[in-house]
């Protein structure tokens, strides 16, 4: 197989899962941003590593409270997730969108009710970079929909049922690999807050 050295840095063709990070702002209002630079660590137990670039409300809130939730994005959630990933937390428009949330069971974090997997995370270590920051997190709780935690069926069937979204090449893909649109497209399906 021939190979080409690329001129620019990219993670194209390396699909990633998507998570909505939930935080509370100073007024106790929940904010959600969309993130894919999320993976796992091992240090005697499973942990999470997350990278946030630039400045954004999610980052400010995490700095103040050291806790956040990470909620798996499914096909059903994609239009909302796309809106939350393309609208800054400080914009009045984002503050007006209605999102079904509940309180974390262990940490004071907003959890997305309609997401089937929710991590409640506490930052153990901030690693500041020049224009970004890596956060190493302790997993304080994992909430799984009963379909996953208690339901009958194989992991293949359960994954097909919840249909997590993957992203690469600036696009979203279904669990089965179908194109679900470019970043910024699925949000056209939700009713924009006025
Ligand atoms: C598909 C997608 C993935 C994203 N992943 C990340 C990420 O991993 N890290 C990051 O810093 N921003 C990421 N963003 C950008 C944030 O979601 C965006 O800045 C959002 O407005 C942040 O919300 P906030 O302002 O409420 O914090 C992503 C956006 C999209 C559309």
SSE layout and pairing:
Layout: E1 16-17, E2 19-24, E3 30-35, E4 38-42, E5 46-53, H1 57-65, E6 67-72, H2 78-85, H3 92-95, E7 101-103, E8 110-112, E9 117-128, E10 132-144, H4 146-149, H5 155-162, E11 166-168, E12 171-173, E13 179-182
The structure holds flavin mononucleotide.
Flavin mononucleotide (FMN) is lined by residues 31, 33-37, 51-53, 56-58, 85-89, 167, 183.
Overall description:
With 194 residues, the protein is an alpha+beta fold. Helices cover 17% and strands 38% of the residues. The protein contains five helices and 13 strands. The protein has a seven-stranded antiparallel sheet. The protein is globular, with a radius of gyration of 17 Å. The mean pLDDT is 97. The protein binds flavin mononucleotide (FMN).
Give the tags.
194 residues, alpha+beta, seven-stranded antiparallel sheet, four-stranded antiparallel sheet, binds flavin mononucleotide
